[in-house]
Model the fold of this input.
Amino acid sequence: MIVLGIETSCDETGVAVVRNDRTVLSHLVLSQIKDHAVFGGVVPEIAARAHLDHLDRLIAAALKEANLTFSDLDGIAATCGPGLIGGVMVGMMAGKALALAHAKPFLAVNHLEAHLLSPRLVADIPYPFLVLLVSGGHTQILIAESLRHYRLWGTTRDDAVGECFDKSAKLMGLPYPGGPHLEKLAAECVIPPAALERFPFSIPMQHTATTDFSFSGLKTAVRTVMDRLGAEGPIARKDLADLAFSLQCTLSDTLSLRVHQAMQDFRKAYDIPAPVFAVCGGVAANKTIRAGLETTCRKNSFTFMAPPLEYCTDNGAMIAWAGMELLQAGYTSPLTVPARPRWPLEGLAASVTS
Ligand code: KG4
Ligand code: ZN
Done:
């Protein structure tokens, strides 16, 4: 089986063709970062227009690269939410039109579910498994019980961890999107123990046995440090690198601590001899965070799974793969399916009409 996937929910236009043996036949991502950088964040109207300008060309290029035509496809999948509604509508309408024109099944994909299933693009992870979803808008610990059935065990009470990266990076004068830039800057830190001592941050709700998160306090702490450093004169690159390093360590430790708690809860709730933990979403591309979570897995005897870096941030391959899973499970979507700006994972099975 072969599925085409279309992703347009934020500022990346992604198109990919994926086969049911987990081979990605083609995978193209056009980033709009330059279009939005001057505004310091994603401008929904600009994003929607950019998707419209480039999507047709990318779909044609993805098929060409896979050496296929529409007639070779078994289904067409598109993100139908959650996300910036203008962009979602562009990708969804393109997918529906192609499905109708070529008489192929249409698969309405939930963007968050596609992130959650992206580790299964690497290997056939058995259900149930524990997942950490860390993206620009979400920080959630979930149990993937089966396709379309997810249990939320923890979420953020304020900002998402990606938002904390992005907002802190902005305060530090780094370009949008901040996460990858902050990671690069942190790598310039020369004496890590000195950086941690000089800019100590505490883990939010450190002594509470919770699987919830809170990141807005850390962002405020970064602002306070930046104000203090700025008052002393121009801020040296070395100081920023130390600050970035310490913040990244704290974010990583925070995620690992919560995941550790969730692993203990998982062991009590499920009798599974070889449990699996998977991380997904844009922030899962961060190497320090991945390493921290791998260590947490080792400590708790969980197998660590994560998609390759290029499938962590938004892309068409994860949409095509989610569509593949739905198609194989016998789901298809009517062309009347709506675009949803909000579409939570909990209650997902009940929220779809097919
Ligand atoms: O999953 P994603 O591409 O889009 C959403 O669905 O939100 O995630 C984007 C988020 C942004 O906050 C971005 O700064 C963050 O992922 N991100 C990173 C890294 N790469 C992307 N954060 C930290 N380190 C990275 N290497
Ligand atoms: Zn995403």
User: Anything to note?
Assistant: The longest strand covers residues 12-19.
